[in-house]
Design a protein that fits this description.
The protein is an all-alpha fold. The protein is built from 20 helices and no strands. The radius of gyration is 23 Å and the shape is globular. 50% of the residues are buried.
Length: 532
C-alpha cells in the first residue's frame, strides 16, 4: 500500500518539475517581449496579465470549489454522477458571471490606457474572455487529475499549457520582427490564447473519455448536490476574490497614479517576488484533495495536525531562503533579467529592486499560508476562516491608496521613489497580518490544536536563512569572473545563489529535519534499486 510520504513525494516532485518549467518560461518571456515591443508594451502586458487574471480568478473559484466536492463524491461521501451534474450547472453560472466581469473591465480600459494601446488592451481582454469560457467549462474534468491524485499527468498538462507565452513571443517575433507595439501585442495575445485553449480542451477530453459522467448534465442537477457545492462555493469565492485583490488592486493603483511606467516596475517586482510563492506551490498543489481525503479518515484531527506541522515546516524551508535571496540580490536579479534590454535601465532597475524588497516579506507570508488555506479548505472549514482573508483583501487597496497619498514623492526629475511603493507596502502589511498571524490563530482554534503547530515549524527556517545570508554577497567581496568594480555577470549570480542554496540545504537537513523525517523522506523516494 502506498504510504502518505510516498504520495507526497510523487505529488511534490511532479509539481516542482512543472514549476521549474514555468519559472524558466516566465523568466525568458519578459526580456524577449521587451526586446521585441519595448518597455511600454511590457508594462501594458504585465498590467493586462494582472487584470486578465480575472480569468484565472474565476477558474480558481470553480477549481477549488469543485475539487473539494468532487473529491468527497469520488471517495464515496455522495453520488459522483450527481456531483458532476451540479458541477456542470455551476460552471455555466460562473461563465456568465465571468463574461459580465470582463465586459466591465473592457469598458474600464478606456479610462486607463492611452489611445495607441487601447485597442490592444481591449482585444487582449476579449481573447482572455474567450479562454475563460473554455477553461471554466473544462474545469470539472481537468480537476479530476487532482482528485484522482494523478499529479504527474496534471502537472504535464499544466506545463504544456504554461508554455503559451513563450511559444507565442518566439513565433510572433519571428514572423513579425518589425511591428508596432499595439499590433504586436494583439497577435501575441491571440496566439497564446488559442494555444492554451486547445491544450485545456484536449486534457479535459481525455479525462471525459475515461469517465463519461464528467460530461455533466446541468439540467439534471439536484438540489442536494447543488447545496453541497454552494455550501463552500460562496465563502470560497469571497476568499479568492479578496486574495486576488492584493495583486489586481495594486496594479490598478500603480496604473492610475504612475501610468505605464508604474505598470512596468510594479509588474516586474510582483512577478519576481511571485517566484517566492512559486517555490512553495510545488508542495501546495493538490493539498486540498489530500485534506479532503484526510478529513474523511479515522482520527481526522490527528492526521490534519500532523499534515499541518509538515506543511508549515516544508513551506517555510522553501519560502524563507527565496525571500532572503530576492531581498539581498534584488538589484542584480532585476538588472540581469531585464536591465540590459531597456534604453534607460537605471530608472527601472532601482525602483523595481526597491519594490521587490518591500514586497518580499509579504509574499513569503502568503506562500507559507497557502498550505494552511488549502488544508483547511479541503477539510471543509472554509466558512470558519474566510472572513479573516476577506477583510485582508478589502483593506489592501484602501491601504495602498492611502500610502500613495501619504508617502513623499521623492526622486530625480519627477520620478517617484517612495509613494510608488505604497501598493507593495500594502501587500506586505496585509499578508503578514491576516495570512501570517490571524489565519493560523483561527486555524488552531478550529482544529483545537496548539498555535505552535502552525507557527513553530516556520521559525527555524527563517533564522537559518537570515544567519547564512552573507553567503549571497561573497562574489561582491571576492570577484571571480569579473574585475572588482565591474557589474555582476550571470556566473556571479549563479555562484552566489548556488553556494547559498548548497549551505542552506546541507544545514537544513541536519538542523531542521529530525532523524526520523530524514529517514522517511529517503524511504519515500522511489529509487529503482530499492524497489527491487
Amino acid at each position: 500500500m502506498i504510504t502518505e510520504a510516498r504520495r507526497s513525494v510523487i505529488r511534490i516532485g511532479s509539481n516542482y518539475a512543472r514549476l521549474l518549467a514555468t519559472l524558466v518560461f516566465g523568466i525568458i518571456v519578459v526580456p524577449l517581449l521587451v526586446g521585441w515591443l519595448g518597455a511600454d508594451a511590457l508594462g501594458l502586458f504585465l498590467f493586462l496579465v494582472s487584470q486578465a487574471g480575472i480569468a484565472s480568478l474565476f477558474e480558481e473559484v470553480i477549481r477549488t470549489s469543485l475539487i473539494r466536492e468532487l473529491a468527497a463524491a469520488w471517495h464515496g461521501e455522495r453520488d459522483f454522477r450527481e456531483a458532476c451534474d451540479a458541477a456542470a450547472l455551476v460552471s455555466i453560472v460562473v461563465i456568465i458571471l465571468a463574461l459580465a466581469a470582463f465586459a466591465l473591465l473592457i469598458w474600464i480600459m478606456g479610462f486607463l490606457i492611452p489611445d495607441p494601446y487601447l485597442d490592444a488592451a481591449r482585444l487582449t481582454l476579449v481573447f482572455e474572455a474567450a479562454f475563460t469560457i473554455v477553461n471554466v467549462a473544462c474545469t470539472p474534468a481537468v480537476n479530476m487529475y487532482v482528485v484522482r491524485e494523478e499529479f504527474i499527468l496534471q502537472n504535464l498538462l499544466t506545463m504544456i499549457r504554461r508554455a503559451d507565452f513563450l511559444i507565442a513571443v518566439l513565433l510572433c517575433s519571428w514572423i513579425w520582427p518589425q511591428t508596432d507595439p499595439g499590433t504586436g501585442l494583439i497577435v501575441f495575445a491571440a496566439f497564446a490564447t488559442g494555444y492554451r485553449s486547445l491544450i485545456i480542451a484536449a486534457g479535459a477530453g481525455w479525462m471525459i473519455k475515461r469517465d463519461t459522467r464528467l460530461l455533466g448534465r446541468p439540467w439534471k442537477a439536484t438540489k442536494p448536490a447543488l447545496k453541497a457545492v454552494m455550501s463552500t462555493f460562496g465563502w470560497n469565492t469571497g476568499v479568492i476574490v479578496a486574495t486576488n485583490l492584493h495583486d489586481r488592486a495594486g496594479a490598478f493603483v500603480a496604473n492610475i497614479w504612475f501610468g505605464l511606467f508604474g505598470n512596468t516596475v510594479f509588474g516586474l517586482a510582483t512577478r519576481l517576488v511571485g517566484y517566492i510563492r512559486m517555490v512553495t506551490m510545488g508542495m501546495t498543489a493538490g493539498v486540498d484533495a489530500v485534506g479532503a481525503r484526510l478529513a474523511s479518515a479515522k482520527d481526522s484531527t490527528g492526521s490534519l495536525q500532523n499534515m499541518i506541522r509538515n506543511v508549515s515546516k516544508m513551506h517555510a524551508i522553501m519560502a524563507w531562503p527565496a525571500a532572503v535571496t530576492a531581498f539581498v540580490l534584488a538589484d542584480e536579479l532585476i538588472r540581469l533579467w531585464i536591465g540590459v534590454h531597456l534604453d534607460n535601465p537605471s530608472e527601472y532597475v532601482d525602483i523595481t529592486a526597491m519594490l521587490v524588497r518591500v514586497a518580499a516579506l509579504g509574499l513569503a507570508a502568503r506562500a507559507i499560508s497557502d498550505g494552511w488555506i488549502l488544508l483547511l479548505y479541503g477539510a471543509g472549514y472554509v466558512n470558519r476562516y474566510a472572513k479573516i482573508l476577506f477583510v485582508g483583501g478589502i483593506l489592501d487597496p484602501i491601504l495602498a491608496i492611502a500610502l500613495v497619498l501619504m508617502l513623499p514623492a521623492l526622486g530625480d526629475e519627477g520620478v517617484s521613489w517612495n509613494n510608488i511603493s505604497g501598493p507593495c507596502w500594502a501587500i506586505t502589511v496585509t499578508y503578514v497580518a491576516f495570512h501570517g498571524v490571524l489565519l493560523p490563530m483561527r486555524g488552531a482554534k478550529i482544529l483545537q490544536i496548539p498555535l505552535s503547530t502552525f507557527i513553530g515549524p516556520i521559525i527555524g527556517p527563517i533564522l537559518l536563512a537570515l544567519v547564512i545570508s552573507p553567503i549571497l554577497l561573497w562574489p561582491q567581496w571576492i570577484p571571480v569572473f569579473r574585475a572588482s568594480e565591474e557589474a555582476w555577470g550571470l556566473l556571479d549570480l549563479m555562484l552566489a545563489i548556488g553556494s547559498y542554496a548548497l549551505v542552506y540545504v546541507t544545514l537544513a537537513s541536519f538542523l531542521l529535519l529530525s532523524k526520523d523525517e530524514r529517514r522517511r523522506l529517503f524511504q519515500a523516494i522511489p529509487l529503482p534499486a530499492r524497489s527491487q
